[in-house]
Write a structure and sequence with these properties.
The chain is mainly alpha-helical and 377 residues long. It has 12 helices and 6 strands. The strands form 3 sheets. It has a two-stranded antiparallel ribbon with strand order 1-2. β3 and β4 form a beta hairpin. The longest helix is centred in the C-terminal third of the chain and has 36 residues. The radius of gyration is 37 Å and the shape is elongated. The relative contact order is 0.06. It comes from Lasius platythorax. This is C2H2-type domain-containing protein. GO terms for molecular function: nucleic acid binding; zinc ion binding. Pfam families: zf-C2H2_2, zf-C2H2_jaz.
Length: 377
């Protein structure tokens, strides 16, 4: 028989909903379900997998705010880097390049042409003939060589060919490229136009998208960034300066000082006919090197023994320190011998080129059927 002393009133337990991952409790199931779908819960799950303790809601909100602010800054940086000129249809990798482009001659010229076209379209008295003339002039301007002014050659601003470094002078620019990119100007002492040579190299990189070492022998690159990254990654930050390539850079050099017999030699003298045999496939230079026929190019490419050699010596006062650094990187005697060989090769190629040009002009004059004597007797 039960009595009042044997009966104990047990209170009804309170139902609590707990998230073990975040260490938090909820009073109802709806809030519990919503919590499972929140980013805070997912973040703590990732921390739990990494064996890290959970964080509070306030700490998670602070992290989220910092992360969103960082993304906004990155987006702004990308917008600054990906500057684009819609009128010229060009993209620029930095804000500095974009600002330099805005003050260039061709950009201002195109702005003026656009304003003229706007005024021209508003004028109803223009005829179709005038429009055709304007169209022809636009095509002619596109085909002209004036577009080269808008290539923004870095040498004009004393900038590096391979990066965005700016120098105060052409000598400091050469020193920077030597230290940072191992770029050397071959036979710097005999280079009579350093700025002209570097400007020409910049035109090849920024206009023709050509690697200075491959020199159109490899695949064709499509942008300046691709050329620069290719040259840096492959170690091609150097000039191809031997063989037929000497003719390409001949106008920037003067080897007369290194060749004692150059003043007494006759530039119009003919080389031995046995060497200038047009039926052969090789042309032997005085230094011993052999230039092969382009028909056998695929065979010569299989064994390229290219050895870039530089020679430096004290010449001008402003290049004295740079020349001393050049000289410290190699044997001076070996460099002098290499420069003398190149000087003889350049002189020999000039004679061959002059002889061939004279023969070609003579043949063309002989083949002209409309030729008549100018004398009256």
């Amino acid at each position: 028989m039960y009595t009042m002393a044997n009966i104990h009133l047990v209170p009804e337990p309170i139902k609590d909903f707990t998230c073990i991952t975040c260490h938090i409790m909820f009073t109802n199931s709806e809030a519990h379900k919503v919590h499972y779908k929140s980013e805070w819960h997912r973040y703590n799950l990732h921390r739990k997998v990494s064996e890290l303790p959970p964080i509070t809601l306030e700490a998670f909100e602070q992290k989220s705010t910092v992360y969103r602010t960082g993304d906004t800054d990155k987006d702004k940086d990308k917008e600054k880097k990906n500057q684009k000129c819609k009128m010229c249809r060009k993209k620029f990798g930095s804000e500095k390049q974009y600002s330099n482009h805005l003050v260039s001659k061709n950009h201002k010229k195109k702005m003026e042409e656009k304003n003229k076209d706007a005024v021209f379209s508003k004028n109803p008295t223009n005829t179709e003939n005038e429009m055709e003339i304007d169209t022809d002039s636009d095509v002619e301007s596109l085909n002209s060589e004036e577009w080269l002014d808008d290539l923004e050659n870095p040498i004009e601003r004393n900038d590096c060919l391979f990066c965005d470094h700016h120098s105060r002078s052409i000598t400091r620019n050469l020193k920077h490229m030597m230290v940072e990119h191992s770029f050397f100007v071959p036979d710097l002492e005999y280079c009579i136009d350093q700025r002209g040579l570097l400007t020409y190299l910049g035109q090849k990189i920024y206009s023709e998208y050509t690697c200075l070492w491959c020199n159109n022998s490899g695949r064709q690159l499509q942008s300046v960034e691709a050329v620069r990254s290719h040259m840096i990654d492959k170690g091609h930050c150097r000039m191809l300066f031997e063989g037929e390539t000497l003719l390409e850079y001949m106008r920037f050099y003067d080897y007369s000082l290194s060749y004692p017999d150059a003043k007494d030699a006759d530039p119009d003298s003919e080389p031995p006919k046995t060497v200038l045999d047009v039926e052969g496939y090789e042309l032997k230079l005085p230094s011993g090197k052999v230039i092969g026929h382009r028909a056998l190019m695929r065979y010569y490419k299989q064994n390229l023994g290219l050895e870039p050699v530089t020679r430096t010596k004290k010449s001008e006062e402003k290049l004295r320190k740079l020349l001393m650094q050049y000289r410290a990187l190699g044997d001076a005697n070996m460099q002098m011998e290499a420069a003398q060989r190149r000087a003889r090769d350049v002189q020999y190629l000039q004679r061959v080129q002059t002889k061939y040009s004279t023969q070609l002009q003579f043949k063309q004059n002989k083949l002209q059927k409309h030729f008549r004597k100018q004398s009256n007797y």
